Amino acid sequence: MNRKFYEVEVIDPGQDALHLCIDDQAFSIPWRDCSAALAEASAVEREIVEIAPSGYGLHWPLLDEDLAIAPLVTHAQAAGSSVLAAQ
Q1: Letter string b/e over residues 4-30, b meaning 16 or more CB atoms within 10 A of that residue's CB
Q2: Any idea what the Cα angle at residue 76 is, between residues 10 and 14, rounded to 5°?
Q3: Where are the domains of the chain?
Q4: Range 8-84 classified under CATH 2.60.40.1080
Q5: Does the pLDDT value for residue 65 go beyond 90?
C-alpha cells in the first residue's frame, strides 16, 4: 500500500525560514524551530532538500538531517509561526 501522508512542496528554503506548502496550506517556519543543524547551516546546505515520496518527511542530504512533516506542522501551529494563505 502506497499511502501518501501529506502533499508537500518546498516553496523556498529562505535565509531565515523554511517556506513550504503542506496540503494546500502554506507555512513559514523559522530555521531555529526546525533544528539546530538547519539553523546553523549555510544557504547551500539548506537549499538542497528532498521530499520523501510518501510525503512523510524532508531530507537535507548535505547535512544528513531529516524532519518529519507532522511535528513541523504541529509545532508551527502551536508556536504561531506564520501560516500563509495557500498559493
Answers
A1: eebebeeeebeeebbbbbbeeebbbbb
A2: 40
A3: 8-84
A4: no
A5: yes
Residue at 19: amino acid letter: H
25-30, strands of its sheet edge to edge: 8-13, 17-22, 25-30, 83-84
User: pLDDT confidence of 45, banded at 50, 70, 90?
Assistant: very high
Beta-carbon contacts of 67 under 8 Å, excluding residues fewer than 6 positions away, are: 34, 35, 38, 57, 58
Ramachandran region of residue 55, left (φ > 0), alpha (ψ -120 to 50) or beta? left
Residues 66-84 have a mean pLDDT of: 79
What's the pLDDT score for residue 87?
40
Cell triple for residue 80?
504561531
